[in-house]
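Record passed on underneath.
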Amino acid sequence: MKLFNIDKYLLLIDENGKIKDRGICLCYDKLTKEPHLDYFYEEDWDYYVYKPSCILAYYPLLEDAKELDLPLLPNPFEAYNKEMALRAYPIDQFEDDFDYRFRLGFEAGFKDKFTLEDIKRAISMARLISDKSVHDEFEVEDISGLTEICTYDWKNKYSDEEIIKSLQFERLPKEFIIEYNYYPIGVNGNIIGTNKPYPFEGIIADFKIKEIPKIILNSKKKQICGTYKW
């Protein structure tokens, strides 16, 4: 399993996992090998030059990211905030008051936190060019192609989305440790008994154990359980 950042999503992928027919997967362009999201069709297996990857869960990084028919990952930014707070104020300093300790750590590490709209507004301001000779303001797009000042092919090197994503990269985790439920299975590989998971991993009597990612409902949406690592 590994985390993969693409377009507007943080993905948890299993490169060797079974992809559901007609399900969303991570594919790679035939020529450039550029990754992209697409639907998987078993009958078109020969079409794929590079083996597609199974997506176990995802998290939308931008507000306009479309909802995918997959379980959600926990919010990585909230997890990052909590991780940094705990690092700033370890548990043994305030064992009897977690809320107080967490607030101190959060405030210490995130006084400079801005909303997405704050960042977009700052980008727009930074793109403005001021010409005092004519008392005017303009952006690169406003003057691109004007022969008087040779601006052919002028454009912004980075889009707003690329700038926003570059800021988010610093807070994105490097790894996600999945939390599993463990079920006893018979010789045919099927789960036996009451389908109630064991609270631990291992061999119980003559039964083998099958591990299945733990899924919960969070605001009526399926969410995979686990822990991020930075």
